[in-house]
Amino acid sequence: AGLAAASKYTLGLVFLPVLMGIWMYQEGDRRLVSAGVATATVCLTFLAAVPYALLDLPAFLNGLAFDAWHYRTGHVGFDDEPGLSQLSYYANHLTNEFGLVGAVLATVGSVAALRRDWRRCVLFLTFPVVLLTLLVGQRVIFLRNVLAIHPLYAVAVGYGFVVLYGWCVRWLAERNQRLGGPVGKVAVLLALMALTFPATRIIEHTSVTPDSRNLARDWIVQNLPVGWTVIVPAELGFDTRDLEDRDLLVQEVRVTTLQDQKDMLELVEGQVVALVPVWGMDGRVAAPVSPDEMNATTAGKRTLAEFGSNLVLVNYEPAAAWGDPRLLVVAPGR
After folding, report:
1. pLDDT digits 0-9 by tens, 5-63
2. Is the pLDDT of residue 257 over 90?
3. Beta bridge partners of 328
């Protein structure tokens, strides 16, 4: 639990079922002794991994306070109202990853485990339930926060699969003894496997959506003659090596103000193109420049191609924070 909390503070909640298990399965003074040993172990392992939590306590506490404020106030593009909308989002995520049948099996497995040994089931479910309760009360939605639930969810799905398989085999055997034999068992197993595996999601995992910078690079290599100049804002985090290998001239500039943007576009004359970010902003904090004014500067230029889906933020570092930045390949006007 200490190492888990050191890697992600919210994962410290995994210590709760540890304390609950001690309370459920220990008696008398052993409860206090075991809880004390467990607490000391968690603290020591956490400090071993994050020693500056103690060596620089003010910075550690300030960081915790900032994270609490951040999750409470929201994050542009990754937030929603706390409560049911958040719960629906995470539920849809798990259904998308494990399939609708997986959700049914997880429910069957959890109910069956609760009936078989309620104490163990409560310990098993405590961490994911408490973590989800914490997350749905925040504005920020980061799917990485529920990754720790995936293996536990998969265990529930697997147990539900075993339970449902047993039910189906017994049901077949009650109706026809021959169907309860090896052939029937294999048929039930294959049928459940076919229903359980989310084929669409598996196919999606076998392919990767190309980043807009790679698409723009390929387009430039295929469409621009040798010797042309490509102006690249540093804020895009663009790897220019392939362009340079194709004997294209690359000029990197920094664009942090409206005047920087105008100066860059003034260079787009003759055999010169520029990769121009489509700007946006993080609405939680003030922006040094209006993204609308930045985007309006491309008027009079010719857009040859457009790539990407995520706005490049004028008041965020790094500006292309989420990958696949939206950008234009701009050439001189007609």
Report:
1. 888 888 999 999 999 999 999 888 888 999 999 999 999 999 999 999 888 999 999 98
2. yes
3. 276, 306
DSSP string, 242-294: HHHHTT-EEEEE---SHHHHHHHHHT--SSEEEEEE-EE--TTS--SS-HHHH
The three-class DSSP label of residue 308 is coil
DSSP 239: -
In the DSSP assignment, the letter for residue 131 is H
Backbone angles phi and psi of 293, in degrees to 5:
-65, -40
Residue 307: strand, helix, or coil: strand
Residue 275 near residue 233, CB atoms below 8 Å: yes
Q: How far is CA 17 from CA 33, 130, 157, 276, in A?
A: 17, 10, 20, 51
pLDDT (tens digit, 9 = 90+) per residue, 221-240? 999 999 999 999 999 999 99
Chain CA centroid to CA 123, Å: 26
Which amino acid is present at 150? Answer: H
| Angle value at C-alpha 326, between 273 and 318, nearest 5 degrees | 100
